[in-house]
Write a structure and sequence with these properties.
Helices cover 27% and strands 31% of the residues. By secondary structure, the protein is of the alpha+beta class. The chain has a seven-stranded mixed sheet with strand order 1-2-3-4-5-14-6. It has a seven-stranded mixed sheet with strand order 8-9-10-11-12-7-13, sandwiched between helices. A hairpin with a 2-residue loop joins strand 16 (318-323) and strand 17 (326-329). 40% of the residues are buried. The mean pLDDT is 96.
Length: 391
Amino acid sequence: MKIRTYQEGDGEALARLMVAAFGGEATYANEYFDPRRNPRLDPEQVHIIEEDGEARASATVLPMEVLVDEKPAAMGGVAAVMVHPAYRRRRYAGDLMRTALGDMRERGTGLSLLSPFAHAFYRSFGYELATEAVEYTLKPTDLPTDPGQSKLRAYREEDLPAMMALLEAESRGHQLCALRSEAFWRKTLGQKEHEAAVYEDEGEVRGYLIYKMSGITEGREPGRRLEVQELVAAIPEARRGLVSFLGALDPDAFDIRHWTSREDPLHPYLRSSYVDAKVEPDQMLRLVDVEGALRLLDREGGPLVLEVTDDVIPENAGEYTVGGGEIARGAETEDRVALDVRQLAQLYAGYLPARQLARHGLIGAGSPGAIDLLEELFPTGDPWLFAPDHF
């Protein structure tokens, strides 16, 4: 057995492996592993287990950027971790994850995200849940309508720069929000199942909606579904107009599925709050390089010693003094908190408050004031990835 990276000609074998491992369409799999058609793919970060000349397992790291305190930061998106069904239970996936983490550290990538198939598996490699989504299933009649809907029209290619600017502004409010290249924008909008509409006021695009509409499903009531992929608005009038588009659908033909971040709920704006809504776990975060990740932050407060443990990447374990916008390796003050790299990831994302983690015994404070300092350094926020950026 050997672990190697992508070589020319591997695309077809990896596509077959993806279909065998996950199902799905061969067309999608072939496109995914084609560097010419997948703008996120870096062949040097596709890790493959080969045995007897056969690709038996693979894991891909997508080199992306996310916002950390509103600034771009390198992030490795772990995706397509797959093992052929005939070769499972041989620890191939674990070997690939360790290889991927080591490669990210060597590249200076301090952060990694993934969408887990099993939380326990990825926790064993130092990842922890760091984002969640509220999933709504609605009837069109649950949503208000608005005269501003008359300012909506179908997307045109010349709208793209304005839409990119709207998303960039909206993303600043979400820690870990992915930055989307123009190539990936075009790939997203070019998919045949995706439609888009924009809200235009006085010649300026002030909001947009990306959505998918299903075909008719026999035996399902209603027979069709509209899935909101992304709704972004710069002004309240644009949001009302875009929501009105959804509310104007035929309720006998459609229902609506819409994901929002936890700080952008629909309930306050619905005609009736009694709708189907559930919290869904989303991304897991790994601080691949703790010191490098901490240096990305733009935080005042402290000083406080973080006593970090990491049972997977021992180089991360140790003491870090955080305060005044500076990071120092070692203990340079008395106040301290002991925590695992997994809980540090949740604080880093702004997913959970420090006091809640302490209440559950997941962090240990050396003094009562240490928790106050920790909450000051790591306030809760609204970490979020928009649906088109999932991988």
